[in-house]
Design goal:
heterodimer; A: alpha/beta; nine-stranded mixed β-sheet; two-stranded antiparallel ribbon; 6 helices; 13 strands; globular; B: alpha/beta; five-stranded parallel β-sheet; 8 helices; 27% helix; elongated
């Protein structure tokens, strides 16, 4: 089974987010980028599928942000091919803008299965995976936690997550696009030494594209952080003092029995 | 030609009308009042008639019955919903940000080449355009969106609207599908329920919840110690479960459990909307996070900006001392 995985860069939410001078976009000039969390799970799921049978894993990413580090890490984890798609815009790729060139690259690769994180936290006006599926004319299902290849080689069995830890088991005929929420196991750790080795041995396949930007039909007029701490009464002091205060609160409310 | 109607996807999960439906109907009611359109509930099911009594907040209830809609699978649902939206041309389609909604809303928008807004918390009309406030970046940022094109597909956050009390006309209409709903490339096989035997966190009075701030699996033990002295149980946000540090039966949030304990002690949880959805109705929420702007502080009753890992042993000691 030939599997393509899309990896995206997103701003690291550990760092404070800022709004740019326009007041209607994130200021990414000082942002730290990390691999989109659910995309990382998509890569892990692809590697698990490869390891459970035969096949290849091809990682496809737009050339934006600090993507090279992410791609070398993917190679160190076991990806067979790395395809880096040109991105000549200065702004971060929106889902609609990203879908056109990524779909063009995927069409050339013609994979059996495309795995994409079900969501990126900076998506506002589109969701990449179903946009890709629609452009490629492939079936799509998302919120997937776990994929198994069927013995017939033409289908996969997936678990779609619902509230209450309920899963729906679905059989998906290939080729298809899946929106991954979580892999069958956590993304694997790869030591720095292997990433360094991958930096020396990995060759990116760099492709350009003719696809134009897709409009979303939505205008962002303003962006701002929500009002902080709108409700909570903050407890201050050292950890020991906060622990004491919480204990008093619990006692007052009859929660210490 | 579009109408002024607002169409709501009535979501049915394992034979039950999901709570999000009444929230979407309330949001829709607020949109049609000034414009004069109808609130239309679309019920996709094998036999949707049983859900009519619970949809009295709609003006029109479209029953779209077909055997292929008995259990959720994206293709027949999209074909049916796409046909209805295409024919009725509503001003907007409201779909919950649920497991089903995360498939159908973007697929419908892509199929119709319609604008899609995610994370919708507030929706209103401004002149003839829709003005939407959306939450993104894990609840750490809000965006105001203007949408002129019709129909707009809006994915609404659970909990953003309270179910309304305004009754609608509740006229029932059976929809005769012309789209073929089968065969499909995606086949529903079965539901798999969580294995019995683990702690049922929905029945606990006290929950010690851990998030990404717990940093590593070994630190879950610290939370277990606190839960033990408090007489409660440990639960978690999605990243902790994704890492395999706790089983899915301990996950709180959109795709996990919904809990309403007497105490929800959130340790190292930022409080993304998906997590808040599962715990916001807890009687007492105490949140501990090093990030002062963590969204969890917006819904917590008490908060502390300290390191949860430093606090945990101190809190175990303080509770033990208090209890003697």
């Amino acid at each position: 089974m030939n599997i393509a995985v899309i990896l995206r860069q997103v701003p690291d939410l550990i760092e404070p987010l800022e709004v740019d001078a326009s007041g209607a976009a994130l200021d990414l000039s000082a942002a730290t980028f990390v691999v989109n969390e659910t995309d990382d799970h998509a890569l892990e799921q692809a590697l698990l599928l490869k390891e459970s049978g035969r096949g290849t894993v091809t990682v496809v990413a737009l050339d934006f942000g600090e993507v090279d580090n992410t791609l070398y890490t993917a190679a160190a984890k076991g990806a067979d091919r790395i395809v880096k798609v040109a991105w000549e815009q200065t702004q971060a790729p929106s889902p609609h803008a990203a879908a056109a060139p990524l779909a063009e690259a995927l069409r050339t690769l013609a994979p059996d299965l495309v795995l994409v994180g079900v969501q990126a936290h900076d998506e506002l006006d589109g969701v990449l995976a179903p946009l890709l599926a629609t452009r490629l004319g492939l079936p799509y299902v998302g919120v997937i936690r776990g994929v198994k290849a069927a013995a017939d080689g033409r289908t996969v069995v997936v678990c779609k997550e619902f509230p209450g830890a309920v899963m729906a088991r679905l059989t998906v005929r290939l080729p298809a696009v899946l929106g991954i929420l979580g892999a069958d196991q956590p993304p694997r750790y790869v030591p720095v030494s292997r990433i360094r080795a991958a930096m020396k041995s990995t060759r990116f396949e760099e492709v350009s594209h003719a696809a134009g930007l897709g409009p979303s039909g939505i205008a962002v007029t303003r962006m701002a952080p929500p009002p902080a701490g709108a409700r909570a009464e903050m407890l201050t002091g050292s950890e020991a003092e906060v622990a004491q205060r919480i204990t008093e609160l619990l006692a007052e409310k009859g929660l210490l029995k | 030609m579009s109408t002024s109607d607002i169409l709501v996807l009535a979501e049915i999960q394992r034979g039950t009308l999901a709570d999000i439906t009444s929230e979407l109907l309330a949001a829709a009611r607020g949109l049609v009042s000034p414009s004069g359109g109808e609130v239309v509930a679309a019920v996709l099911a094998a036999n949707g008639g049983a859900f009519v009594p619970a949809l009295g907040a709609a003006d029109r209830i479209l029953l779209i019955d077909h055997p292929a809609l008995a259990n959720y699978s994206p293709e027949p649902y999209l074909a049916a919903l796409g046909e209805v939206v295409g024919a009725r041309a509503p001003r907007a389609v409201l779909i919950g940000a649920t497991s089903m909604g995360w498939d159908l809303a973007p697929l419908l928008a892509a199929r119709l080449d319609a604008p899609l807004a995610l994370g919708c918390k507030e929706i209103a009309f401004e002149d003839s355009a829709l003005r939407v406030t959306s939450s993104f970046c894990g609840g750490k940022m809000l965006a105001e969106l203007r949408i002129d094109r019709t129909p707009a597909v809006l994915m609404v956050l659970p909990g953003a609207y309270r179910p309304g009390e305004t009754p609608g006309k509740a006229q029932v209409e059976s929809w005769k599908l012309s789209a073929s709903l089968e065969p499909a490339a995606i086949r529903f096989d079965e539901f798999q329920l969580p294995e019995a035997g683990d702690v049922d966190i929905t029945q606990q009075d006290i929950l010690v919840a851990v998030g990404r701030g717990i940093q590593q699996k070994e630190n879950v033990e610290l939370a277990e110690q606190l839960a033990q002295v408090l007489g409660g149980a440990v639960c978690a946000s999605r990243p902790v479960v994704d890492q395999g540090w706790l089983p899915p039966t301990r996950q709180v949030g959109k795709s996990g459990m919904t809990v309403k304990p007497k105490l929800y002690l959130a340790l190292g949880i930022s409080g993304a909307p998906e997590h808040q959805e599962g715990m916001k109705n807890s009687e007492l929420i105490i949140a501990v996070n090093t990030d002062a702007r963590a969204p969890i502080f917006d819904i917590a009753h008490y908060g502390a900006q300290v390191d949860a890992l430093e606090l945990l042993p101190a809190l175990v000691e303080a509770v033990q001392a208090r209890k003697g």
